[in-house]
Amino acid sequence: MPQLGLLHGRVWASLLGKLLRPPGAVCIGAVHSHSQVAEAVLVSQLKPHQEKSNFIIKTPKGTRDLTPQQMVVREKILDLVVSCFKRHGAKGLDTPAFELKEVLTEKYGEDSGLIYDLQDQGGELLSLRYDLTVPFARYLAMNKVKKMKRYHVGKVWRRESPTIVQGRYREFCQCDFDIAGQFDPMIPDAECLKIMCEILSGLQLGDFLIKVNDRRILDGMFAVCGVPESKFHTICSSIDKLGKMSWKDVRHEMVAKKGLAPEVADRIGDYVQCHGGVSLVEQMFQDPRLSQNKQALEGLGDLKLLFEYVTLFGIAEKISFDLSLARGLDYYTGVVYEAVLLPTPAQAEEEPLNVGSVAAGGRYDGLVGMFDPKGHKVPCVGLSIGVERIFSIVEQKMKTFGEKIRTTETQVFVASPQKNFLQERLKLIAELWDAGIKAELLYKNNPKLLTQLHYCENMGIPLVVIVGEQELKEGVIKLRSVASREEVAIKRENLVAEIQKRLSES
């Protein structure tokens, strides 16, 4: 350790000498100096053990560890989600956890301040990915892909308060499904809504509703209400908070903080508090102000077509046209949607607003073109499943009903009632592993039989194979059912077949 202190002094002396040189000399050795600065900082952080300050061992704010029990629940959710994506013909894709900073800049509107920037590494300015959509658009443009149906499961990072709602973190997992390519209107969009319904129904979270709107309708609404075009994005961001805030609070934000005229805010209020089915779409076609706007009419026309397709898919009763739905991200260009769980009667008394958003998405036809040198566009539509939110709900339900979770998938335990049978147990378990059977044993030479059986009961292992002196003499193995405690003798050569038969029947 004394040598470290000496090195520390030498490095800073060297740095000080370089700083006192003429500017040209400093520039010539810039790269070398940079590495020395990094070394100096590292060395300065290395202290003798006795000087080490006390600190609390914890995960960083907005992150968490997942226990084996939680991982079982999480993997079941992800398996259901991914199997649905594959059922609809999606290919898997992965992208780096961080991107060039400029790739992410100006893609998320007011939320851009939540992007995690990384320290300059290797001459590149980098940021952790904020979502999976922008990296997908970058991938399409970079590889000149014009058509693709893909799914992606991965972590994203957002520098926001993790305590806003349950299931919201700074590091979290997203499950995305996207369809890229030029197709006839609303067919891919309707499939995305169908996928959301399949996943939410399969997870059995309770009743849900998918709100839909169109950014062209919103922009048209802003225009006819008198919102200056320069304020479209920022007002859209305020409207997007209506699921979490009352109209009164949203109106106050638009007027007091964003400088919108009160009468304009009131006109917006007449629209954003409307929601319904296809009849509301028809009603908006007849609206004296909205029907005069070309953008709004295009959006209404597509929504009418969307309702026709979701009716054919048998999910129309789950879809609601909601003029308050904005989806504040800047890259959306057309249809947007968001799935919310509906509160039970008991929850409704405590929570007047919805239980929470569990899936969302929309159309983003201009995003790929932002990365293409020639500006060539690839129309895209997609959805994202809120895994963390869903996980919190499922976990809470399991606690409420006291469900016990198996943390392993072990099917068979290899045991012995006598000493000096480790070699026989090892030969037997190797035979089971080679046959593709999930098996375990205790890592002791001479474990007690009762200890082995208790382990099986605690871990929920269904079958035990027992080998001892008598079994060796007779050329058999005892097969025991943990639940019923019934035992049968099976010929050694027939053991694997018998176990596979029982497992297939269970």
TrEMBL record:
L-histidine binds at D131, L132, T133, R158, Q174, D178, R327, Y331, Y332. Residues 62-417 form the Aminoacyl-transfer RNA synthetases class-II family profile domain. Its EC number is 6.1.1.21. PROSITE patterns: AA_TRNA_LIGASE_II. It catalyses: tRNA(His) + L-histidine + ATP = L-histidyl-tRNA(His) + AMP + diphosphate + H(+). Keywords: Aminoacyl-tRNA synthetase, ATP-binding, Ligase, Nucleotide-binding, Protein biosynthesis. One of its GO terms (molecular function) is ATP binding. Pfam families: HGTP_anticodon (PF03129), tRNA-synt_His (PF13393). One of its GO terms (biological process) is histidyl-tRNA aminoacylation. CDD domains: HisRS-like_core, HisRS_anticodon. The keyword Protease does not apply. One of its GO terms (cellular component) is mitochondrion. Belongs to the class-II aminoacyl-tRNA synthetase family. This is histidine--tRNA ligase. The gene is HARS2.
